[in-house]
Amino acid sequence: MHSVVLTKGVPDFREGQVSFDEDGHLERGDTPTVMNPNDKFALRAALQTKVRHGGRVSLASMGPPGYKEILQEGMRDVYADDLYLLSDREMGAADTWATAMTLATGIDQFEEEPDLLFAGFKTADGETGHTGPQTAWCLDWPTITHVVAFEVDETERTIRAKRLVEGDVSEIETVEAPLPAFVVTDPEFEASYRTARERLRYKDFRAETQERAAAYEDHLTVWDHEDLNLDPDYIGLDGSPTIVAGVDPIPKAPSEREATMVDPDEMDPVFEELQPFAGAD
Predict the structure, then answer these.
(1) How would you write the chain as a 3-class SS string?
(2) Residue 49 belongs to a domain
(3) Among 6, 115, 171, 219, which residue's CB has the most CB atoms within a 10 Å radius?
(4) Residue 71: domain span
(5) Domain assignment present for 117
(6) Residue 269 lies inside a defined structural domain of this protein
(7) What is the CATH number of the domain that holds 94?
(8) Tens-digit pLDDT string for the chain (281 aa)
(9) Is residue 245 part of a domain?
């Protein structure tokens, strides 16, 4: 069973000012990045698949050379077997469509067709949730979104998934699709290891991967647009139909609570006010 996880680095706003060029495009090479938080649910889903069914997990990302560290983090967390980075300047400033076209071409480059493709719900920077489903559309694979649990039947070559449907009330819908399939994990997804055998395999994979992650570049494949035989006119900025009209800084959210400054030498009134909540006499 071969699972592929799409992952991405997103700006780390805690590290300082995010860098944009004069046209309003994010300068990812000059911006501190972290792994997209929602991708971690997809990583856990792929690891669950490996523990239950064997096989391997690959992580794939499109971005600047600095994304190698993001892939290393993913390898360490999900015990992945190999990493793929699609990277060169011709791919830069791509919108979701150009990114999906590039990722789908990279997945087609694998020696054998993967069984499952996983992605997170959305990224923390663009928040469109488009790239994963668009990649699946390019591959002509069935897509299941908002997945909170799933089972794979290797004999029947199917995946049966529970997905969260939110409307006036939250409901769980059960759907089935043939493999290969694309799965978007919901933030409510939790990996499950139900037997002693699965828990032991999980522990073994952890020990193996710590060594592999330390030498992650030995398991990393980097492809540029020439390796993938991609026309520069259809990828990156030139292949992106989206036009950025402008970029506005994210305003700091207003405080919802009032604060009262108290002199450290005058804390007795504060203790008296808090005492009833502590259940003290």
Answers:
(1) CEEEEECCEEECHHHCCCCECCCCCECHHHCCEEECCCHHHHHHHHHHHHHHHCCEEEEEEECCCCHHHHHHHHHHHHCCCEEEEECCHHHCCCCHHHHHHHHHHHHHCCCCCCCEEEECCCCCCCCCCCHHHHHHHHHCCCEEEEEEEEEEECCCCEEEEEEEEECCCEEEEEEEEECCEEEEECCCCCCCCCCHHHHHHHHHHHHHHHHHHHCHHHHEEEECCCCCCCCHHHCCCCCCCCCCCCCCCCCCCCCCCCCCCCCHHHCHHHHHHHHHHHCCC
(2) yes
(3) 6
(4) 2-234
(5) yes
(6) no
(7) 3.40.50.620
(8) 999 999 988 877 654 556 666 666 666 567 677 888 889 999 999 999 999 999 999 999 999 898 899 999 889 877 789 999 999 999 998 899 999 999 999 999 999 999 999 999 887 776 788 898 999 999 999 999 999 999 999 999 999 999 999 877 789 999 999 999 999 999 999 999 989 999 999 888 887 888 888 899 999 999 999 999 999 998 999 899 887 676 665 555 555 666 777 787 787 887 777 777 775 55
(9) no
